[in-house]
Amino acid sequence: MTDGFSLTDNPWLRLPSATGEPAQERSLRTALLEAHEFGDLVVEIPTQKPAVFRQVLLPVILAALGRPADEREWMNWHSAGQWSQPQRLKLEAYLDAHRPLFDLFDPVQPFGQVAGLTTAKGEMKTAGLIIATEATGNNVPLFASRTEGDAISLTPAQAAHWLLHTQCWDTAAIKTGAVGDPQAKAGKTTGNPTGPLGQMGITLLAGRTLFETLLLNIPVGAPTTSTDLPQWKRRDPDDPRLAGTPQWQSRSPEGLLDLWTWQSRRIRLFPEVTGEGLRVTGVLVAAGDRMPYTPETEPHTMWRVEPAGGRNTAKDKDGTALPRRPLRLQPGKAVWRGLDALLAPERQSREAGHKTSGFATSKVLDQAGSLITELGEDYPLRVELSGIAYGNQSAVIDDVMFDALPLPLAALDADSDVRSALLEVAEQAEQLATAVNHLSADLRRALGTEPIPWDKGQRPGELILHALDQPVRRLLAGLRQAADLERIEAGQLAWEQLAWRRSGEIADRLLQAVPVRAFTGRSSSQGDGKPERTHRLPLAEASFLKRRAAILHRADAFRRSSTYPDDN
Question: pTM of this prediction?
Fold first, then answer.
């Protein structure tokens, strides 16, 4: 028999103070009621943050207070800077009334788990199974310092975080068949998809305090329906959604509460009292509910919009065409390189959806864009994107992706000069990368070799994108204060001048690395009776300089107008 662990009253959320004091573990009650006193949530890996927000923090607020009916009510909440006294009383009453349902080790209704979940042979795995950063099964390296059988123990706070993370991001493929699951065969269930967040890139907004961050991630709208319940309220054995039993089903979520607290796995934690205190040493993970597709009510993802009847149009399990599908993140690609999707307002995406392919930003980011006047263009909004790249059959995790970007609120206005400037900067960076790749290809041809394939190896264009990463982020932060076109143009000119120098340095490295015979060059046939094309170092360099001048036109014009132009 072990003691319980109440997420409501036991410390498990690491939060620093809003004034910058070191993070300490806080209970759910303290974190929510005093949210205005805390800064950003501290987690072990970035993908834990959306899991904690969506599985616990946001649904508790939504269940206790409802959501703002419109943007005016949202601003009334926000302008107060903290919960009003009536709101605090409602939150406290909700937490008190549902306290037993938030016990991580309750013998009857453990939070986010199925009590008594077992296999036919009574097996369990080590706690490392739910740790995304631990290699398990066939992923354990042959000569690793540990094996899958090595004991791993988690504190209750750690176990809570990894439990929520597993419900959101777990790998796909075969899962253990639990007793009481009629769809299990030979002790296994197959065809399991990844956790629901594994199907998309997650966009969270961050403000100055935890209170502001919570509000920024709650979409305004109609009240929740009577059938839209969080998982901790769906524990009745007669409930057709079966959240507290080994049984599972394929269905669509009934609202935000159901969506945010989706139980994609049936899990049981095995705690024991050790010399270090209460620890989770074992775990059982079985199949859980399957979501046929990501519903359009999902507020925390960007979307790819396809024209009606397009060949890439997504379809649900019944073959019905879906108007949009969630946008995934690409490993190694900075957020600012996808600004065309991040800054695509809903109005623009609706127009694109009828005519051509396009993007739509997340609902919470689109909502923030509509609140520019109230929040102020200099509001220090931060956008955090996280995702997971899966490997073979989505059964392994290849990469955990995270990026954070300071975003000027004015950029969310479809007609603003700031938005136009940022989209131009992102496009210029990509064009510079292409120009450097063309230079590399021309130099290789001058030596009689083929260019580096686009899908193999690292092309030198990636070097320029890496070199421009911090300058772009500084520009984004600086444009928060750019209230007029003159300051925006000045910022763009400064960026172009820095990009001019950085791209010149990388081009010089390529030019200096080739042998002397590249000056003589080679000729190659273009086919179809066309004359041969000559590839030489001077021609390659001249072509790059011409491309760079066309891309960075402000810097080129400034250089030409200067008394002593910079030739680099």
Answer: 0.91
